[in-house]
Amino acid sequence: MSAILELAEYLGIESSYYDIWGNQIFATDETRSSLLNAMGFTINTDEDAQQALLKLQRDKWSSPLDPVYIIPAEAQTGRIRIRLAASALQHKIHLLLSLESGDLHQKQISVSQLKPLSEQTIDGQTVKEFELEIPDNLTLGYHMLDLRLPDCQSLSSLVVAPRTCYEPKQVSDNKLWGVAAQLYSLRSQQNLGLGDFGDLAKLVHNAAEHGASSVGLNPLHPLFPANPAHISPYSPTSRSFVNTLYIDVHAISELNESKAGRELLESGHYKEKVAQLNQQELLDYPAVAKLKQQLLEIAYQHFVCEHQAKNTHRSQKFDDFCDEMGAELDTLCTYDALYEHFHKQNPDVYGWKDWPAEYQQANSAAVIQFAQENKQRIGFFKYCQWIADQQLSGIAKLAKQQGMPVGLYLDLAVGCDGSGAEVWGEQDLFVSGAGVGCPPDLLNQLGQDWGLTPINPFALRQKAFRPFVNALRNNMRHAGALRIDHVFGLMRQYWIAPGKDARSGAYVRFPLDDLLRIIALESRRQKCLVIGEDLGTTPDGFGDIAAQAKMLSYKVLYFENQQDGRYVKPADYPDLSMVTVSTHDLPTIKGWWEGNDLKWRTELKLYPSEETRLKELNGRNEERKLLLTALLDAELITPEAASKIDLTSPSMTLELSVAIQKFLASSCGFLFMIPLEDLLSLKEQVNIPGTTWQHPNWLRRLPCPIDKLFSQAHAQQVVKAVNQLRVK
């Protein structure tokens, strides 16, 4: 084995993978070297790789403790591996264990009493590895281990975590259902042309009244306030906060208290602009952002003058929020202020990679000085985050008050935009230049580059998984369920080599067992269900591992087929699953039945060949027949009605659409979600993977306001049928 291949294997870069068609695809030497260089290694020759590998091994054996240990909560005794120089055999180890609760446990152990497991020679010195028993009485949580010897001290994080997540049976004994919404798409007379948290509150109220147990949402992560044209919710600047464009400005107390705010809200110009934005078929994010920011700035100025200056109770609550969110909030809001500052100077300057060099490090002297000189502007962005968090928290409480067993079902994106705040703030964690995506598959046969910067799993462990914990915790704080996008990324991620297309990549291993334990710990603490979006090529063993962790699988009708192509029967869906007909990246059921997605793929030239296009076109005809057969077998449609359905010129009917929703509603899956696009029998899908400006992704608004969603004829029939099959 070459040293380059050995180094790649050590860092988790896999040599090959099997694609969705069963072909073994090998990573090229060029891809391997390119990814290694992106990870921070200068690798031009085998000798370079050999030296890099030796340094990694030396660093590991030179430290007594690993950066982090994950201790199974069900284990009788915690056991970890430590490394000590042979000269330490005559000494005693002094262990200090600081529990998350604040309790401190101490213990002394003679090194000579420990059993050596292995040894290495590092720089001419023998280093032995031992197994060490951790003091008893460990509780669930995050603790700190301090190991001391006469000539050294070493610190490590100790995470005691359960095996299983918060379970469906702890939520309800019944099978539940809910609606899934793209928040921005909601219509109302009150919003500014883009769905907001005020609209979400109404949706929660109306959905609960009609028997829904949950409202699912697109990722609510923050994007880029100074660049509102950046709109994909799956390409955030950070995964730990909230998109402030969703703030319901009319619900901000400071705006209503302010004379300037009231005058603006009552002005003819404002009302005319809002009416204009609400009449548009597609969203105008920049126009909405401009209007909303004007209102937010008025509210903030009033807050500064009437609350911060007088140290009111409301000001203290804001300070508490800032303290709770800590350094991550400082980083995000400093970044937002810098982004705005440089973008105003030059409209062609966007993320931190375009800024002057002295501002490209979050802890540089220039950035620290900027933060000191722009405290109020940074304070404005913090205020917006606080307002957004308050409003989202209120909606989560409303859902519970309305009797929703699950409540808000939020979505955690797989990663962050490389030009954003999270990457800027922790550059040593990310692999700049590389991309996260997926190889060619049924959704896109050219592969996909999601425009996200991958996290280095080796660096993540060095940070004791802290960034991952923060992302989970901040997304679960207001959620009754959390969908983890592309959950396979916990086991392995497909990295695309810098400067290459999605076909030039390799899979990189992640510490699945450790990450699942952390997910389970946070899930239990927050009483939040976890749903793993597991579409695509499933890595060997992943399904069983996720099920053992009580993570709900993500079942989409289009992909639930047996080997002979027949659709899986409702009774054969796993209990531990969330089921749905479609998702944001797939056609609506009406669009699928009528072949609208195939039309778009043809127009957008997303097929690698005409042969592939014709194969999918013919395959869709067969899929329609099989679905109709499945509905007949389940007695959800009568033979007479089925005989009237024209498969050669397919057109979705009310009876057929309702039967398809009933098919999944009758399944064994714990949670059944209906996208609002399907509830209203819409034709166009939310997003077409592999496209950006070529298609109106993330721009479509719903055709009717929130208060009329459930009174539409199609929605009434679906809700009635689902409530008969599922008990709230």
Describe the sheet with the most strands. Answer: 8 strands, parallel, barrel
Shape: globular
Oligomer: single chain
% residues in beta strands: 15-25%
Low-confidence stretches: none
Q: What class do helices, strands and sheet pairing give?
A: alpha/beta
Count of alpha and pi helical runs: 23
Q: What is the averaged pLDDT score?
A: 93
Radius of gyration, in Å, reads 27 Å
**How far is the N terminus from the C terminus?**
58 Å
What strand order characterises the main sheet? Answer: 11-12-13-17-20-21-22-23
Helix content: 25-40%
Number of strands: 23
Could you walk me through the main structural features you see in this protein, from its secondary elements to its overall organization?
This protein starts with a helix and ends with a helix. The mean pLDDT is 93. The chain has 728 residues and is an alpha/beta fold. Helix 9 (313-345) packs across helix 11 and helix 14 packs parallel to helix 15. Helix 16 links the parallel strand 20 and strand 21. Helix content is 39%, strand content 17%. The strands form 5 sheets. Strands 11-12-13-17-20-21-22-23 form an 8-stranded parallel beta barrel, surrounded by 6 helices. A 5-stranded mixed β-sheet has the order 3-10-9-5-6. The protein is globular and about 85 Å long.
